[in-house]
Amino acid sequence: MGRFAQLRAAGTGFVVDLAATPVPVVVHWGRDLGELDETGLAALAFVGEPAVLNNSVDVPRRCSVWPTEFEGWAGTPALEGHRGGIATTPRPRLVEHSLADNRLELVLADEITGLRITLTYTMDSSGVLSAQATLAAPEAIDAEPYEVASVSILLPLPSQAVEVLDFTGKWCRERSPQRTRLGHGAHVRESRRGKPGQDSPFLMTVGAPGFSFGDGEVWALHVAWSGDQRYVVEQLPETPPVLGGGELLRAGELRLGGGERYETPISYFAWSDEGLDGLAARFHALQRKRPRSPRPLVLNTWEAVYFNHDLDRLLALADAAAKVGVERVVLDDGWFRGRRADNAGLGDWQVDKTVWPQGLTPFVEHVKGLGMQFGLWFEPEMVNLDSDLARQHPEWVLGVPGEPGPPSRNQYVVDLTNPEAWTYLLTSIDALVAEYGIDYIKWDHNRDLHEAVDHTGRPVVHNQTLALYRLIDELKVRHPGLEIESCASGGGRVDLGILTRTDRVWASDCNDPVERQSIQRWTGQLLPPELIGSHVGPERSHTTGRRTDDSFRLATALFGHAGIEQDLTACSPAEIDKLTAWAAMYKELRPLLHSGRVVRAELPDDGLFFHGVISNEHGLFSLARISTSPAGQSWRVRLPGLSRARDYRLRIRAELGLPSMRQVRAPEWVTAAIDGWVRAPGSVLVDAGVAMPTLDPGQALLLEVIVDRA
Ligand code: DGJ
């Protein structure tokens, strides 16, 4: 290797100047600059070197791979910490490096802190760059431990990247987008909930002002971690904007004694010049490397029966589900000892014999006998004080001993760093998975972690998160076919740390399609549709009270890992027929929806959402009206992602019922596309668009497109 390390894939380039001192400098992250030789790369570094400013250090200030004050860096540093109150000024130097298979490894030795830092950057074939650091303390065991306060992996951005998009939210309104204009200073987002939370920044994206789904240059970061975390985008007057983050550590949480190591979570960085859809495509490609069987259509019992577990009722529900075409039945909360409401039982992971006198066997056998998989709800990390677990092991409850603070949903957190508690959970879940042949676990987590200290008073979110990962990993080793869903009061734990070892997320407890359109649209910014649980609820939403048409609910739930969450035994024959048609449609379109490229469009009308999934030959689009608008027309909508050079046929899928519309006569092509295929050149669809009918609010139109070979 010469002076430069260059990682390249799928149009993205990342270049590091290894000769820069004291540590290498990132000279480029963004569009692939092509196959540059050493001369070209030297020119890249040379012409990019900034001026030396007045009232400033006498060397040009650039963003190194490990920014420190030693280099004159006045922004967020890569490392903060101390050894007994000193060693606070890291001075790392590059001592080793290697580059192979698009993976760059840099080893830095720091004479002040004594740490040896290994930084790895790996460019995936999707163009997503993963970055990770390992800090190793020296072997000398008599030395005072080094206390790590923070580690941030930072990458430079160009100066035009000043518009920030990240996310916030609450229960039933996850991943609500927010845009901010970056000035001088830092835009910082932190989670101190022991999980990413419903208001997780999720994917911090920065771009030139006005970037949209289809257009603009954007740079983004996702921290793949299920505990506390921190994201920052920062610009100072003298240095380029930087984007970075990592785990958020509490004071005293991480102390590296002799020979101990700390591995940061992976930070996933991605760039695109095709706007937010381009970014999403990279993250989807990354996650689609893991092979998955077709995502089975789910029935979840929660909103159908809540805690009212009654075998006959559940058997009838399973029968109805099988008739509709369901492939997996998930028995939600309420099956274990003492769990008749949400104030007791958590922690006692044995079947409640008062409700299930023969155990779960009659139900499980019935479900499996109908050809469906069986899933079961757990909330392993939680405990009610009204449980045998809490009575027998108060020391397993996380928090200040004897005074664990206020409950949240009547519950507390189990200290997974306690080996006995961890083993109890593993043994209990393992036994049930083995006994009932459980195919799927819905793994819930319904409270924030506050004062998350063990019984010595030591903060534990870091170790708690690792213990959670170990627990899931061990269950997966013991039961290789077992699938797990990450749920946290809906979508409170959606991150690529947990998704490395689980199989989908529950995006939200909100099944109201009006809200779901937005939640799924933005959850899809990081996750492909097949990882996003999306269920059809009843006419009146249990979480918003809003009434919606079934065609809108069905069309919304189609674009994810679909399921049903309502009492099918209370549905009319007409409703069952509709659900059955929808189930067949889901199975027909599943290969497309779960492998294609997700495309979205910004429309001038805020009340109108347009999105789709397309493959080479086939596409399904949805036009959804969320609210009315002052405009009479919905105007021509361009169909993103199709080829201008090909001819297409389009039709409106009417199996779920046609949306209600508000006009004397719909555009003529709509009538024709309901009756059969309408032909149109790709350039017309992509660049001119099709005139849309004016839908009533709470309605969706499904438009299917195929390549016209005639
Ligand atoms: C919260 C989840 O998000 C719901 O789907 C449901 O499983 C309940 N917990 C059960 O208590």
UniProtKB/TrEMBL annotation:
Record domain Glycosyl hydrolase family 36 N-terminal: where: 24-256
Keyword Hydrolase in record: yes
Domain of life: Bacteria
Annotated segments matching region Disordered: 178-201
EC class (word): hydrolase
Reactions it catalyzes: Hydrolysis of terminal, non-reducing alpha-D-galactose residues in alpha-D-galactosides, including galactose oligosaccharides, galactomannans and galactolipids
Keywords: Glycosidase, Hydrolase
Pfam families, per the entry: Glyco_hydro_36N, Melibiase
Protein EC: 3.2.1.22
GO molecular function: alpha-galactosidase activity
Protein name (Swiss-Prot/TrEMBL): alpha-galactosidase
Organism in which the protein naturally occurs: Kutzneria chonburiensis
Lineage: Bacteria, Bacillati, Actinomycetota, Actinomycetes, Pseudonocardiales
